[in-house]
Design brief:
Helix content is 17%, strand content 18%. With 198 residues, it is α+β, with helices and mostly antiparallel strands. The termini are far apart.
């Protein structure tokens, strides 16, 4: 027989104890820190238009407080997302996004270790209209535990090669030369005039 009285030995008392015990549990919330990514390599030191055309410059991405996905650098969606994160501040058919980024393939990116990944720029048909600034936004899918995309630092600056406008001639600076003539000797011949005196 169930005792409905209010007390430790009754049903109501037992229910209260159960509810009290349930809410006495403690919960621990762990905050996962987002990783950070720093870029180094020969493309960070200096990147000229001619370097992009020739290829072989490197972008080395080092992650802290996280690790790269174990399959980064393989032929998969994560590698594609990493490469697509290299975006320019300029638009145009001859610019970085169209001529370089959109032609990168998974073999250009290598996962060197848990924290280091290296991109080797391939040769490109690159025809920029002006200087560009490239930013790497690291997609969340390429990292192990970070919960959001990460913007790498620093940005990458590309300097174009100046060219003369079409239809114009680039004039050289005027040159001053001192010309010294050799001494000149002249011979004057006076002919005698014959006269007849009457």
């Amino acid at each position: 027989m169930i005792k409905w009285r209010d007390g430790k030995g009754g049903f109501v008392g037992a229910a209260k104890q159960a509810i009290k015990g349930f809410f006495s549990y403690s919960f621990t919330v762990t905050t996962v820190a987002n990783g950070s990514v720093v870029l180094t390599g020969t493309a960070i030191t200096e990147l000229l238009e001619s370097d992009v055309i020739t290829g072989s410059k490197t972008i080395i991405a080092t992650i802290s407080d996280d690790t790269w996905l174990s399959t980064l650098g393989n032929d998969n969606a994560a590698t594609t997302a990493w490469l697509n994160g290299l975006t320019s501040d300029r638009n145009g058919s001859g610019q970085w996004d169209t001529r370089v980024r959109d032609n990168l393939v998974y073999t250009d990116l290598t996962r060197n270790s848990d924290t280091v990944a290296t991109l080797v720029l391939p040769a490109s048909i690159y025809e920029p209209e002006g200087n560009e600034t490239i930013t790497l936004t690291v997609d969340v899918s390429t990292m192990t535990s970070t919960a959001a995309d990460v913007t790498a630092s620093p940005t990458i600056s590309i300097t174009i090669t100046p060219v003369a406008p079409i239809g114009r001639t680039v004039l050289a600076e005027p040159e001053t030369r001192e010309i010294t003539a050799e001494p000149e000797t002249r011979v004057i011949v006076i002919e005698a005039e014959n006269r007849t005196i009457n």
